[in-house]
Amino acid sequence: MRLLHIISLVTSLAACLVCPGANAQIQAPLPSAPNPRPISAQSPLPLAPQPDAAGIKTAASQERNEPILTMIPHLSESRYWLSGQVNIIFQGRLPFHSPYEGSNSFQSGAEYKTSLIGTLYSGLRLTHSVRYNTDLILDLESTGGRGLSQALGLGGITNVDVVRNPSLGSAPYLSRYQIHQVIGLSRESTPQSPGPFALASSVSVRRLEFRAGKLTLPDFFDLNEVGSDSHLQFTNWTVVNNGAYDYAADTRGYTVGGMAEYDDKAWSLRYGLFAMPIVANGIDLDWAFSRAHSQNGEFELRKSLLLKGKGTQRVLFYANRAHMGSYREAVSAFLAGTGKAPDITRHEHFSALKYGFGYNTEEELTPNLRLFARFGWNEGQHESFAYTEVDQTVAAGADYAGIRWNRPADKIGMAVVSNAIKRDHQNYLKSGGLGFLLGDGNLNYGRENIVESYYNWNAWRGLFYAVGAQHVSNPGYNRDRGPAWVGSVRAHVDF
C-alpha cells in the first residue's frame, strides 16, 4: 500500500510541476488510459529493439555526447530498473456543423478536456549472463481526466490517453507484471539500450525471448519509431496504432497471456496468445481460453525499401475469438420488426471469430527526416470489441528532428490517416444502432479523414512540452457532420 501512495504522490507533484492548471479538469470518477506508450522516440536499435520508457537515455548515450532525456540518468549495467513518467494532455475543440446528434456522437459544441497518466516502471535482472537473462517486471499506473465527448463519436479518437469508462476512477493500479526470459542461441552479441521491459545492455544476436504475465500488446506488436509514441509524438488513436488492429485488451488497454519471439540479425518473428474481455470494452477478462482468446503474429524485417536507406517492415496478423455480435444479424432482426433500433448485444455468439492483418513501415531518409506508413484491414462483420471502430485504415506521416536549429531533441511531425468501416457496420449505424464508440442515430457514410501535426520541445532534460492540431473530416464516418478542429497542449516528464 505504501508503494501505491508513493506513485500517487509523485504523479500529483509532477502534474503540479509541468501543468499547474491541469487538476482543474480532473474530476472523480475518472477514466483510465487505454494505451500507455513506453516507446522510445529515438533512433532504432541495431537488432530487434526492446521498447524503452519514452525518451529514456542510458549511460551509453551520454558517452556518445547525446542529450540526457531523463531528469535523472539511468545506469546501463545495473541489475535494477526504476523510472517513471507523467503525461498531461489538454485538448480543446471549436464548434462545428451538425444537423443532428446521437448518444454516442462527437459533440458539436465547443469543449475542452485534460487527461493525465503517471507510470512507475520497475524491474529486476536476476543474472548478468549475456546469453541467459531473466527479468522480473512490475509497473504501477495512475490515470485521470476525460476525453472530448467522453472519448465517443470518432473512429480515430484524438487523445489515446483516455477511454470511455469513468467508473474506474483514478486510483493507482497494477498495469504490468511479467517474467521475461532470454535464451541466447549464438555467442555473437549486440548492444541494446536497457529499458523497463529488457534490462540487459547486451544480448545474443540470435536468441529466443519469452514473456508471460500482464502487458499491453502495443508494447511489442505494431511498433513504429515514427508513429507509436503518444508521449513524444502523435496522440490520435489511429496514428499511434493501427486502427483496424482490434488487439486484445481490457478497458485500460491491458491483457494477460504469453508470447514468444525469435530474433536474428535482420529479422524477427513473434507470436502471442492473450485473453479477451468478456464484453466489448469491458474491464473483466474471460479466462476460458478455449472459448475466448486472441492470437497475434508478426514478422519484422529490418531492411529498407529504398536502396541506401535505413528502414523496417512489419507484417501483422491477428485472430480474436470472443462473445461477439454480428452487425448483419442485428440489422436483419431490426428490419424484421424486432426493436426500435438494431442492438448487436442481442446477437452475440460464443467463440465468434474476428480477424485481420496489418502492415507498417518506417524509413530514415536522412539523420533528421523519417517517414512511416500503415495499412490495416479486418473482416468487419463482427462488432468492434476492444480498441476502436475501424475496419480499414491507411496512414502516412513523417517527423523532422531539430538538429538544423540546434535543437536535436525537438521534433516536428505530421500524419494523415483515412479510416473506413464495412457495409454491414455502415448499415448498423445508419439504422440507429450503437457501437461502444459510435452512434449518431443516422449515417450519411463517408471515410473519416484526419490530419494531425505537432511540435515537441525539449525544455530541459526529461521535461518536454508540445503543441498540436488535428482536423477531422466526416467525424464518425458521417458526411452530415463536421469538419472538426481539435487543438492540444502536452506536458511530459521522464524520470
Describe this structure as you would to a colleague.
- The protein is mostly beta strands.
- It has one domain: Porin (Beta Barrel).
- It is 9% helix and 40% strand.
- A hairpin with a 3-residue loop joins strand 8 and strand 9.
- The two termini are 22 Å apart.
- The N terminus is likely disordered.
Summarize the helices and strands and which ones pair or pack.
Elements lengths: L1 H17 L40 H5 L16 E14 L17 E15 L6 E14 L27 E12 L4 E3 L10 E3 L2 E9 L21 H4 L14 E9 L3 E8 L18 E9 L8 E16 L1 H9 L12 E17 L4 E10 L13 E11 L4 E14 L2 H8 L17 E13 L2 E11 L10 E11 L1
Antiparallel strand pairs: 1-2, 1-18, 2-3, 3-4, 4-7, 5-6, 7-8, 8-9, 9-10, 10-11, 11-12, 12-13, 13-14, 14-15, 15-16, 16-17, 17-18
Helix pairs in contact: 4-5
Structure summary:
This protein has 495 residues and is mainly beta.
The biggest sheet, with number of strands, parallel, antiparallel or mixed sense and barrel status, is: 16 strands, antiparallel, barrel
- In total, how many domains does the architecture comprise? 1
- What integer is the average pLDDT? 88
| Count of helix runs | 5
Relative strand content: 35-45%
Numbering strands along the chain, what is their spatial order in the largest sheet?
1-2-3-4-7-8-9-10-11-12-13-14-15-16-17-18
Provide the helix percentage.
under 10%
At the fourth level of CATH, the homologous superfamily is Porin
Shape: globular
Based on DSSP secondary structure assignment, what is the total number of beta strands? Answer: 18
CATH topology: Porin
Coarse structural class: mainly beta
Compute the separation of the termini in Å.
Answer: 22 Å
Spans of 5+ residues with little confidence (pLDDT < 50)? Answer: 1-63
Calculate Rg over CA atoms.
22 Å
